[in-house]
Specification:
With 519 residues, this protein is of the alpha/beta class. The chain has 19 helices and 14 strands. The protein has helices at residues 10-19, 26-36, 51-63, 82-95, 112-121, 130-138, 155-160, 164-173, 189-198, 229-240, 252-264, 278-290, 323-330, 351-361, 378-381, 392-395, 437-442, 468-482, 503-509; strands at residues 41-44, 75-78, 103-106, 125-128, 149-152, 179-184, 203-206, 217-223, 245-248, 269-272, 295-298, 313-316, 340-346, 366-367. It has a 7-stranded parallel β-sheet, sandwiched between helices. A 7-stranded parallel β-sheet has the order 10-11-9-12-13-8-14, sandwiched between helices. Helix 2 (26-36) runs parallel beside helix 3 (51-63) and helix 3 packs across helix 4 (82-95). The longest helix has 15 residues, at 468-482. The protein starts with 9 loop residues before the first helix and ends in a 10-residue tail after the last helix. The relative contact order is 0.12. Residues 387-519 have low confidence and may be disordered. Bound molecules: adenosine monophosphate (AMP). The site of adenosine monophosphate has 13 residues, from helix 3.
Length: 519
């Protein structure tokens, strides 16, 4: 099929040609006609499939007729992370070139003044993280009754990050008569139920089995002891002569340590995680994209969707707690038909997590031997392991895809849950402050109201005084820290209906959940 057969405007076709797209990808071929018809769409597709253009192109087509009024955007796209939001905004700018649409990217971590001015000028496409969306609405800076199209992108990631209550709130304030496009890389039951709630007679579209790894990515495990990981990483980086790679860690403190260590050994490295101020995050990502920095040491905030060409390799410095994350992480390399390599460092304690990955991707992963790395005895191998508990999902061997209980309620990135059910009259401490991913990390209880540098939370650069939710956070944090019996894995009073029956089950998982799990 050709793009010209999809009924898109000449300006859009010209932009696609300039971009070098020859034909629509399967998701585009399937989604575009239905979006143009005004149908709701439920799309099961990962990033990398061309999903963004699948909704962006028909949206541009639809929105190019008409004009936005001040403070009344005509469409909203919710993205889980600021980096993804920025990437989607870039895509809209490229595809919509020549059509004079007003596109606004509004995310947390940046001053609100400029964002408010943008809204006042009128916005056709508003790309936003859920927290910032609610902040702006609650401050009266944005009116939502002119929304024609509502896009929820990366819904399963939103679930992972505890954004579902925010999304439900946003959906409830939007006009009932609207078009909703809902995309998720996987369709576990919780997501399906959510989609049933938000969508009207949607056209269901699915491309690719959700958990396939690209054939262009050669995958390896590297058996290491905890103390050998850095040495192994350096040895592989040197021997393989990689020019650029993502290195994923499970804990942000390891990211900072690893960046320092690599720099000391002469490597060009930068960190990227949700506790960094947004300007630093942008700087790190930009430098990596431009090739000024060779190795980006990051948390799962960079695992999804970042589309950076020419990344030679991905390292899982830690085996991800969640097998899905493995697929997303290694998908950062081997893009657009290029070759890529993925190395996963596996200690004796990671066998179960590794098994979950093998079950999910349905293939064994070959071992890569690092030359010169000492063989460790079993006892040595398990020494100096970090003091954290395994993610609850790793306690259960995850059934193959499509099984009924594939996903337990998401618990990661949330405040450590109490073992008690929530009291109805007590507001969940973190519900309001979990406005975007940065705040999500900042509000974890182990930090006790202070960041690791000992600074008071209120002194952090990101905490714009204008942000009402931020102002409440310290109070919420204090409440959270003293709280022994009220929070329910981050949902609190906002526990969505589809999870209500599982509250007790979630509470019973409480002791197993790491305080240090990060994104
Ligand atoms: P996405 O899944 O939207 O993140 O897109 C993944 C990558 O595919 C991006 O680099 C897009 O620019 C690219 N892409 C999207 N649609 C097409 C197409 N029809 N032909 C070639 N590349 C595409």
């Amino acid at each position: 099929m050709l793009f010209s057969e999809l009924g898109l405007k000449p300006e859009i076709l010209a932009a696609l040609e300039a971009r070098g797209y020859k034909e629509p990808t399967p998701i585009q071929e399937l989604a575009i006609p239905y979006v143009l018809m005004g149908r709701d769409v439920l799309g099961c597709a990962q990033t990398g499939t061309g999903k963004t253009a699948g909704f962006a192109l028909p949206m541009i087509e639809i929105l190019s007729s008409g004009k936005a009024k001040a403070r009344m955007p005509r469409s909203i796209i919710l993205e889980p992370t600021r980096e993804l939001a920025a990437q989607v905004a870039e895509n809209f700018a490229v595809y919509g070139k020549g059509l004079n649409l007003s596109i606004a990217l509004l995310t947390g971590g940046q001053g609100m003044e400029e964002q408010i001015k943008k809204l006042e000028r009128g916005v056709d496409v508003l790309i936003v993280t859920p927290g910032r969306m609610l902040d702006l609405h609650e401050r009266g800076n944005v009116m939502l009754h002119d929304i024609k199209i509502f896009v929820i992108d990366e819904a399963d990631r939103m679930l992972d990050m505890g954004f579902i209550p925010d999304i439900e709130k946003i959906a409830n304030i939007l006009p009932k008569l609207r078009q909703t496009l809902f995309f998720s890389a996987t369709m576990p039951n919780e997501i399906k139920k959510l989609a049933d709630k938000f969508l009207m007679n949607p056209r269901e579209i699915s491309v690719d089995a959700p958990a396939t790894t690209a054939t262009t990515v050669e995958q390896f495990i590297v058996k290491v002891g905890f103390k050998q990981k850095r040495e192994a990483l350096r040895a592989i980086l040197r021997s393989q002569e990689f020019k650029s790679a993502f290195v994923f860690c499970n804990r942000k403190k390891d990211i900072d340590i690893l960046v320092d260590s690599l720099k000391r050994h002469g490597f060009s490295a930068a960190g990227l995680h949700g506790d960094m101020v947004q300007t630093k995050r942008n700087e790190a990502l930009d430098s990596f994209k431009k090739g000024e920095i060779a190795f980006l040491i990051c948390s799962d905030v960079a695992a999804r969707g970042l589309d950076i060409k020419g990344v030679d390799a991905v390292f899982n410095f830690d085996v991800p707690f969640d097998a899905d994350s493995y697929v997303h992480r290694i998908g950062r390399t081997g893009r657009a038909g290029a070759d890529g390599k993925a190395f996963t460092f596996v200690t004796t304690d990671d066998e179960k997590l590794l098994q979950n990955i093998v079950t999910l991707i349905k293939k064994e992963i070959a071992e890569f031997k690092v030359e010169g790395l000492a063989e460790l005895s079993a006892q040595e191998a398990s020494q100096h392991k970090p003091h954290f508990k395994t993610h609850p999902r790793s306690q259960n061997s995850r059934p193959a895809r499509g099984g009924d209980n594939r996903r337990t309620p998401r618990t990661k990135n949330r405040s450590e849950p109490s073992a008690e059910p929530a009291q109805d009259n007590q507001r969940a401490p973190l519900a309001d402050s979990r406005r975007d991913e940065s705040r999500l990390h900042e509000s974890r209880p182990y930090e006790s109201g202070r960041d690791r540098g000992g600074r008071n939370q209120n002194q952090r650069p990101y905490h714009a005084a204008s942000d009402r939710h931020d102002q409440n956070r310290s109070q919420n944090m204090a409440q959270s820290n003293n709280d022994t019996g009220s929070s329910v894995v981050g949902f609190g009073d906002d526990l969505p209906a589809f999870l209500r029956g599982t509250r007790q089950k979630m509470a019973s998982l409480a002791p197993m959940i790491s305080k240090e799990k990060i994104v």
